[in-house]
Specification:
By secondary structure, the chain is an alpha+beta fold. Helices cover about 25% and strands about 30% of the residues. Strands 2-3-4-5-1-6-10-9 form an eight-stranded antiparallel sheet, sandwiched between helices. Strand 7 and strand 8 form a beta hairpin. It is globular.
Amino acid sequence: MAEKLKLYGFNNLTKSLSFNIYDVCYAKTPREQHDYIKYIDQQYNSERLTKILTNVAEMIGARVLNVSSQDYDPQGASVTILLADENMRPCKNDSEEKAEIILAHLDKSHITVHTYPEYHPETSIATFRVDIDVSTCGEITPLSTLDYLIGKFDSDIITMDYRVRGFTRDVRGRKLFMDHKITSIQDYIMPDTLLKYDAVDMNVYQANLFHTRMLIKELDLSNYLFNTDIYEIPPKTRLIINNRLRQEMIEIFSGSNVF
């Protein structure tokens, strides 16, 4: 285990991870599209999202201070969790409740998640997007949670942004703009997971800004048909659907309408 960095006072580096996943599906009829949206809303409602984010908090050694969640009509959900470093403790005060409030404002760590189900009106392609933001202050870093988050969602396309802001000081007063080693976000993803994706980095090292995009390599059409048996579809139609799905994925991955 690496020796801990000796700091002067509190480590006030802010580490922010923005994690976006996209799940793509083929839903042919308006009824199937409606059922897909309903299915996604049930699978990823605010209650389940809260459990996932609570597990993320435990993985990074944070303590949950407050949870706010909301399901939306007609679709979507949001969850926000306020965190404290597990090493932080409420200061003794005449009012314990007041001490907790002060601690919450000092620690400035939180996790948020928002879901966005939608479908294309002409191609029958439905897309489910999840946005997760983890912002921590102090020694906590959210990078160790990436494999867990990727596994918890059906991730066809993944985009990740990680940034370290501010500075802290060592005991000699020297500024430290980074307190851990990183050359790429991929360094924190298991090799078995990376083998399933094509990945590309766009990093600005001087700004401590790291960006990674990942696109699923293999497309098994049977896993992308909602309430439809693949053997009920003629081979030529299968090819058309497969091309539409891959086109949708490539455009999301590249961030532009390339077709």
